[in-house]
# Entry
Amino acid sequence: MANFTIADIKALREQLGTGMTDTKKALEEADGDMEKAVEILRLKGAKGNAKRADRSAAEGLIVAKVGDNGTATILELNCETDFVAKGEKFIKLADDVLEAAAAAGATNPEEALAAPMNGSTVAEEIAALAAVIGEKFELRNVRQVKGENFDVYMHYTSKDLPPQVGVVVGFTGTDADTAHGIAQHIAFANPSFLNREDVPQETIDSERKVVEEITRAEGKPEAALPKIVEGRLGAFFKQIVLNEQEYARDPKHTVKQIAEQAGLQVVDFARLKVGAGVEAEGEE
# Structure
């Protein structure tokens, strides 16, 4: 007769979130030893993680935290299904990973995965819960935002799911309402850069080449090409540069103008969206 009770099965399932059959089998194999059963279940899950490596993890959530050292951290933790994404265990894991990443001052996923967490590392803790849940988990994005003050905006695309879009704005000034409005604008408009000077030269050169080809194909006079190209490049910057975008709530003014009117200066920002770029990654 196995040296464990129904209460032991229940306790282990609550601890790890495993199925009834797998939990019972692990306890039988461990002869009732709870610690050994945990190791058996995690080893089984780890083997499953390897098999799931090529799966797409396009669901998940965004979490953010403002620190007390002039920085804020925002990250995207992914899983395979929205059912898992809205589960308590996954949400708690995301919050714990955020705390660890912020404490370590992580600025990218690699630094965050190496950060200490619960006596191990973030990478090991993510793998452990993924093994138990039976889905692929991935810490896809981690960003650190700098500033004197911060606004955090989380956008819910469904009332049943955790935040799918998150924005952190670092700014100087005291007008919190305007800062929050700018954060909402960023969530909607998805700028890539704060200022024109931040756009990589290779990106500008590539866009200029495309614009020149299009303009010539339209039969525009050669003498007029430089002016037309520069005008179209300006429109390109208005699409990707935050300070040059038309403010969503007042399109007659740019974001920079709105900020200046409120005595603000945006110094940094980050926007993350769950699953962004997953298909492109899979095609490479």
Q: What stands out?
A: The beta strands are 59-66, 71-79, 116-117, 120-121, 138-146, 149-155, 165-172, 246-247, 250-254, 265-273. The chain is about 50% helix and 20% strand. Confidence is low (pLDDT under 50) at residues 280-284.
